[in-house]
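Lecture 7 notes: from sequence to structure.

We start with a single chain of 306 residues. Read the sequence below before looking at the structure.
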Amino acid sequence: MALQMPLKARPYSASIMRQNPTAFVFLIDQSGSMGEPTQYRGQTCSKAEAVAQIVNQTLLELLLRSQKGDEIRHYYDVALIGYGGAATANVLWPEKWAQQPFLSPAELVQATTREEESVVERRIRDRVIRTVEKRPIWLEPVSRYKTPMKSALLLAESLLQTWVETQAGKDVYPPTVINITDGVATDATHDELLDCADRIRQLHTIDGHVLLMNIHLSDETGKSVQFPGHVRDLVDDPQARLLYDLSSEMPASYHADIAGLFGLDQRPRYVGMCSNTDMDALVKFMNIGTPTQHNQAFAANLRADG
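Now the structure, written as tokens:
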């Protein structure tokens, strides 16, 4: 069984290559409270709209990272799960991909729901140039019903169990799960959520255990907690403590990026969670969890494949 595979002495060091892609699972809270207003890029919009913009940009960056000339390389398998927009969590790809929860970058190109035009400003010397660009859309903003977070974790566990088993014997970079929420689960107790999270974090490839990262969005940023090193760093907030207990300790190769992007002191330990934080922090959080230009650990692993 996959869970019995031996771990390497130096984990989280596998090269991300076409032969050995890694995996990302995004869990998106689509409950009714995600329709509440927030601020993003100087504009007022719903939390669901802001999260959709950020996730779509992340997926686009993953796709661009995979392009080498005319070739789209299979560096990643990506799953997108929503919870709240329906009675139970479900994979959010279009109907064509309903039986295929993980998509490669080449398949992502075909799995968009639509394209959206946006005005992009660039400063060239002393002039501001405005151009209209088309951007692909995978995630639509949805906000209704309750918050079945346990259902989302169970679905992620099932998908990852199968994915990890298919990688048995391969030196594959472990999957990363990023859970984006603004509230409290309505389908489980804290202990039930912890059991689900523990089973996810116990899944592993030869290169290391699955990384589970959680971020809680709120306008109460005065109580914000970002990548704490210890439980004593938490404010007196049950939701923050739950996310702390749900989340993985981040590997050492991530520490410099975490400290740099979030302006934190260097310390020996960071837990992969943020609580009571805003959309700008979500952008940074995604940059830590995925191989964008800001994540030097991932960039180094990707360079190994040219």
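The chain has a mean pLDDT of 91. Keep this in mind for problem set 3.
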